[in-house]
Design goal:
Number of strands: 0
Largest sheet: none
Number of helices: 4
Radius of gyration: 31 Å
Helix content: over 70%
Order of helices and strands: HHHH
């Protein structure tokens, strides 16, 4: 027959791993929340810079719908960040960055097309001049 102290000693090791697992889970959960905060802040800042870069590229003129969407998503991302909804802030910031890059691409494309059209017009005028001078 086992004594009461023997029974306690056999139960204690079983309880210790459970206690350790609970503590480890709590620490991992807390560190997960804390680690999400910094990437969300960084993503919001990077996306904000992408919006600014798109504006500098002329996206307000050439891609107003995309710029409007990017700005709305940035505002929502900043609100989510302030409310400590880091996952939502990260998702909204990524979407805003995608919209801003699309707007910037459209602006760059429109400006390149305008430059191409101007060059084509210059070439046409020069050909007319050459044809007049050669006759």
């Amino acid at each position: 027959m086992t004594s009461t102290s023997d029974q306690c000693s056999t139960r204690r090791p079983a309880a210790t791993p459970l206690w350790l697992c609970l503590c480890a889970a709590a620490l991992l959960g807390a560190s997960g929340c804390a680690s999400m905060k910094t990437p969300a802040k960084v993503d919001v800042a990077v996306s904000s810079a992408a919006v600014d870069t798109a504006v500098e590229a002329g996206a307000d003129q050439f891609a107003p719908l995309e710029m409007h969407a990017a700005r709305e998503k940035m505002a929502l991302a900043q609100q989510a960040l302030a409310a400590r909804k880091y996952q939502l802030a990260d998702e909204l910031a990524s979407a805003a960055q995608a919209d801003a890059k699309l707007a910037q691409g459209k602006a760059n494309s429109a400006k390149a097309q305008a430059a191409t059209d101007a060059l084509q017009e210059n070439i046409r005028v020069l050909r007319e001049e050459l044809n007049r001078n050669s006759q």
